[in-house]
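F.,

This is the one I mentioned.
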């Protein structure tokens, strides 16, 4: 199956890949793609927003980053109204990290009510990358609201990078040794910049974040920031995208940055607001041009990974 950037992608059974707002984790010699399963028609939320009732978090696996085999739902919605995973909940942007200390996979997700006012994090764990994951806690990190987020590992330490203060400020919060909680140490990275969809990576001695603006399911201009120190304010630089539709991030929104063979790639969701289950993906190479004031460049290519995989 040949998948094209910006379109719906298909798995090895020919079914649409349902892994939105997701990420790709490498473990041993296999890649695991986790994301939101939105395989149902839109419904309207209590505040008039477009949503798909929670179905679960999907996992797909691959050994070549091209052929994705569906591994099922690693976290599933409940039909029990009293359950925290009841299908009326919002569960978005799943990110999985492996803990060498506990030998467990730790799944973080944005947990919310359908008006997005609860704004919490969920943490679930599993001994296997393909689940099932068991919810350990749902909480507000450092008693702060948390909506879009990513998890970033820097050597053995890991951090929660999250949109907080009603999406006004992006915080970086240190995780504990088992990656299942925050330690209480946090800093403000992008103050009053109203950024969503944070992604983070480190190249040589510089930390980069690529984020979106806050326009719901509609595309807006990505911006990148950088800092030589992770735990400090980050400086906004520019839009990393170039060429046609660069101001709309090619009609995509960041979900994750992954590194494969010393090359960084930006994963984008291409939301279809009127029918979210049809949303597409792209995975675009990030060019890093040293010694330039504007050192990140992302160009459109129809082929995932720029055709490399
Ligand atoms: C933008 C966020 O980035 C998405 O994950 C989702 O929460 C939408 N907002 C909902 O409008």
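My design for it:
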């Amino acid at each position: 199956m040949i998948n094209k950037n910006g379109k719906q992608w298909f798995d090895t059974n020919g079914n649409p890949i349902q892994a939105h707002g997701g990420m790709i984790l490498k473990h041993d010699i296999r890649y695991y793609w986790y994301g939101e399963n939105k395989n149902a028609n839109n419904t309207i939320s209590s505040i008039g927003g477009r949503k798909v009732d929670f179905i679960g978090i999907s996992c797909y696996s691959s050994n070549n980053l091209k052929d994705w085999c569906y591994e099922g739902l690693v976290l599933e919605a409940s039909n029990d109204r009293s359950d925290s995973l009841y299908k009326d909940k919002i569960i978005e942007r799943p990110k999985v990290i492996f803990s060498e200390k506990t030998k467990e996979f730790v799944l973080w997700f944005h947990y919310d009510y359908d008006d997005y006012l609860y704004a919490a994090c969920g943490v679930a764990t599993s001994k296997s990358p393909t689940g099932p994951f068991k919810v350990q806690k749902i909480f507000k990190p450092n008693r702060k609201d948390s909506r879009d987020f990513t998890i970033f590992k820097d050597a053995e330490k890991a951090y929660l990078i999250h949109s907080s203060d009603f999406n006004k400020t992006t915080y970086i919060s240190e995780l504990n040794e088992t990656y299942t909680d925050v330690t209480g140490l946090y800093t403000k990275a992008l103050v009053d910049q109203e950024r969503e969809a944070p992604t983070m990576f480190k190249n040589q001695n510089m930390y980069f974040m690529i984020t979106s603006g806050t326009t719901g399911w509609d595309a807006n201009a990505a911006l990148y920031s950088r800092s030589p120190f992770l735990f400090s304010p980050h400086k906004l630089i520019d839009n990393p995208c170039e060429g046609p539709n660069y101001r709309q991030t090619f009609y995509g929104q960041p979900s994750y940055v992954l590194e494969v063979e010393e090359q960084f790639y930006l994963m984008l969701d291409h939301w279809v607001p009127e029918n979210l289950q049809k949303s597409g993906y792209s995975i675009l190479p990030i060019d890093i041009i040293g010694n330039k004031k504007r050192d990140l460049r992302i160009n459109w290519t129809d082929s995932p990974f720029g055709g490399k995989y």
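The chain has a mean pLDDT of 97.

Talk soon.
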